[in-house]
TrEMBL record:
UniProt signal peptide: 1-19
Pfam families with a match to the protein in the record: p450
PANTHER family from the UniProt entry: CYTOCHROME P450 307A1-RELATED, HEME-BINDING MONOOXYGENASE FAMILY
Cofactor: heme
Lineage: Eukaryota, Metazoa, Ecdysozoa, Arthropoda, Hexapoda
Family recorded in the similarity comment: Belongs to the cytochrome P450 family.
Keywords of the record: Heme, Iron, Metal-binding, Monooxygenase, Oxidoreductase, Signal
Listed name of the protein: Cytochrome P450 307a1-like
Gene source species: Nicrophorus vespilloides
Length: 484
């Protein structure tokens, strides 16, 4: 044992003292350790993005870091982030080749729109989705979003009234069920009973996957650890398989039987099936995974609603102001609609402030060719981390960033304003295509909840920084029906 320790010590001494032949034009950064690179530096902080911010104080706004076997570059300020996402977006169109991503999408992460490398095929798939997932405010499609959201929130309230309000309520499963039905109704013209066991299982599974994607694992950068993660990887594959079976059996099969190519598509599912028959570049895998991708977007909304509730109920003055604003528009006599949003700027600003404080990380990009950032050489295959955390909570960008202040998103005359550096849904050609649905359905749910109930914490509502997900089994809340 002593001989082995002495040998390892000699290796470490040699590693840290030997001269390096290195391109001096690479971004500066910490010297990596053998095998693990600089992963140990990330472990010193609660989240990797806090570590990136700390390291930027030492190495600058763009620096190199080796994570396991992966060459990475972290970009911290807004101008450089724009260079990566917009000016040179074509140079950074790839995504990390994490094994977990492959497991979630049938063995090939390129089946996913969010986790795929950019290509002409992915551009085609996004164009099919754009009409449905990014509806214009003045379009009939936007009217349909409103109708679907309002109808489902009425069903949600009926289900919620069955609860025992004398006890703290586990609200997240119901929120997620409502969001899932909004998506299936809007995209597939179908919805499910909240007590449907298969539906409940698939909603839970989607939430497990959303939490999973928002986590980091050593195996992402140390693939030789895969045997240790064998059980975890099998679980991911099983989750993905269960979701796929549900979508095929309960949604797609029925649509294929009633599809009429002589009529306009009834919904997004019809549009996908029609393109499958008409476009030789699309296959069945592309269609099923695209629908799965967008249906899974309901988890992002459910988690955002839960995080917003957790943030807001800690501040009674924010709750009171939201309730006053909502009731000034609805009079407490009807449920809010999407078209009330323009008259509820403080409530909308509260959602933006939640997104700021949650600081959802942007999915890493990968350089698809040899290029540059800020004059530094970036080699093909380098993973690029966009430090959205710094943009959202950095003192250079915000006044009193540690405080929850929705009014920071309001102009002096009360209109909603967002600074250019605030990009919670990313920017450029890989911006989140479903962000309008996220904003729309979360607004309808939150305004309805605050109009109908007083909501209080039932425990310490601690949220993980730099994460827009909460665990599948999370906090409970106290709800009291309001006497309006």
């Amino acid at each position: 044992m002593l001989t082995l320790l002495a040998f390892l010590t000699l290796i470490l001494v040699y590693w840290f003292t030997k001269p390096r032949k290195q391109d001096t034009n690479l971004p500066p950064g910490p010297k990596p350790w053998p095998v693990i690179g600089s992963l140990h530096l990330l472990g010193e902080h609660e989240t990797p993005f806090q570590a990136f911010t700390s390291l930027s104080k030492v190495y600058g706004d763009v620096f190199s870091i080796t994570l396991g076997t992966s060459k990475c570059v972290v970009v911290n300020n807004f101008n450089l982030i724009k260079e990566v996402l917009i000016t040179k977006g074509a140079d950074f169109g790839g995504r990390p080749d994490f094994i977990r991503f492959h497991k979630l999408f049938g063995g090939d992460r390129n089946n996913s729109l969010a986790l795929c490398d950019w290509s002409s095929l992915q551009k085609t798939r996004r164009s099919i989705a754009r009409t449905y997932c990014s509806p214009r405010f003045t379009s009939l499609q936007y009217d349909h979003v409103n109708a679907v959201g309002c109808k489902e929130v009425s069903v949600f309230l009926v289900e919620l009234k069955k609860k025992d309000f004398s006890q703290p309520i586990e609200l997240k499963p119901m929120i997620l069920a409502a969001c899932a039905n909004m998506f299936t109704q809007y995209m597939c013209s179908t919805s499910f009973n909240y007590d449907d066991s298969d539906f409940k299982k698939v909603v839970r599974t989607f939430d497990e996957i959303f939490w999973e994607i928002n986590q980091g694992y050593a195996v992402d950068f140390l693939p030789w650890l895969l045997p240790i993660y064998k059980g975890h990887m099998e679980k991911l594959s099983s989750w993905a398989s269960d979701i796929r079976k549900f979508i095929l059996a309960r949604i797609i099969d029925e649509h294929r039987l009633s599809l009429d190519h002589n009529l306009p598509p009834r919904d997004f599912t019809d549009a996908l099936l029609m393109h499958l028959d008409e476009d030789p570049n699309l296959n069945w895998q592309h269609i099923i995974f695209e629908l799965e991708d967008f249906l899974g977007g309901h988890s992002a909304i459910g988690n955002l609603v839960m995080i917003t509730l957790a943030c807001v109920v800690k501040h009674k003055e924010v709750v009171k102001r939201i309730q006053q604003e909502v009731e000034s528009v609805t009079g407490g006599k009807r449920l809010p609609t999407l078209f009330d949003k323009a008259s509820m700027p403080y409530t909308e600003a509260t959602i933006w402030e939640t997104l700021r404080t949650a600081s959802s990380p942007i999915v890493p990009h990968v350089a698809t060719l040899n290029t540059e950032i800020d004059g530094y050489t970036i080699e093909k295959g380098t993973v690029i981390f966009v430090n959205n955390y710094e943009l959202n909570v950095g003192e250079d960008y915000w006044d009193e960033p540690e405080k929850f202040k929705p009014e920071r998103f309001l102009s002096p005359n009360g209109n909603v304003v967002k600074p250019a550096h605030f990009i919670p849904f990313s920017t450029g050609k890989r911006t989140c295509i479903g962000q309008r649905l996220v904003q729309s359905f979360s607004f309808i749910l939150l305004t309805t909840l605050f109009q109908e109930y007083d909501i209080e914490p039932a425990c310490d509502l601690k949220l993980r920084p730099g994460c827009v997900a909460v665990p599948p089994d999370c906090f409970k809340l106290k709800l009291t029906p309001r006497n309006k």
